[in-house]
Amino acid sequence: MTDSKSLNASQETAARSFNGYLMLLLMLLSVGWFAWAMMGIVADRADADFVGMVLSITVFLFVSCGFYMIQPNQGVALTLFGAYKGTDRNEGLRWIWPWIGKSKVSLRANNLISEKIKVNDLRGNPIEIAAQVVWRVTDTAQALFDVDDYKAFVLAQIEAAVRTIGSRYPYDDIEHKEVTLRGNHDEVSAELRTALMERLAVAGITVDECGLTHLAYAQEIAGAMLRRQQAEAVIAARKKLVEGAVTMVEMALQQLSEKDVVHLDDERKAAMVSNLMVVLCGERDTQPVVNTGTLYQ
């Protein structure tokens, strides 16, 4: 498999630019120079400076074309006739030669909630799944020059990663023996983040946080799966109830025998076990029956 780093033809470097405020002062001086020269021409003075007026206009136009503003958490990639010359991350008013191309890239965190997509989980059940991802650009050169549209690239890779993770695990496991989408949210989110970072590395993008925002069975099987979950829950509850009842019956027989309260043969022990199991496992309250005779009547 080709290493993703070998695909990254671009790498961000620091660009050299000028302080925009100093260049703004130079532009204001050119305006003053132009005004002085114009006044000399209007007054028809002998020292009228036609060349100075032309030069001041030239300096003004030249300087005014090189300004650009950088907001906090923003970078500007500079290119010279198509060749990348670095990224300027200095905040405030900046200036560069007018023939240098400028492309702004936001370095702020972006919060994205993907569309609900339908995926078959590990057991083949169709489910609906969506994810929330917090991402940001870390390498402006890769984001601009290694992919055609880095924002569209992020959307496509998020959908692909969500589909992959959704099909890797079952939706739910009533016995809690497997990693599931519903029961292991933190583990699934961590794996989704790792997969996204690997996919987005080629575009110079990192993922700060991600997680599932929507997880449900598809509408065509939602009713059937709900009944299945209810049945599995009833079976699990019954299993726990029977296990507890058996333990209680065993404990009762053992204590009766140890304390020599009553001596029971196998037939009467079986009858007692049957009665206790009915009492402990029955869904309805039992009605007591008082035996006024002997134990064998």
TrEMBL record:
Domain Band: residue ranges: 65-233
Protein location: Membrane
Keyword check for Magnesium: no
Membrane topology, from the record: Single-pass membrane protein
Key words of the record: Membrane, Transmembrane, Transmembrane helix
InterPro entries, per the entry: Band_7 (IPR001107), Band_7/SPFH_dom_sf (IPR036013)
Ranges annotated as spanning the membrane: 20-43, 50-70
PANTHER family: BAND 7 DOMAIN-CONTAINING PROTEIN (PTHR43446:SF1), MEMBRANE PROTEIN-RELATED (PTHR43446)
Protein name as it appears in the record: SPFH domain-containing protein
Organism: Sphingorhabdus buctiana
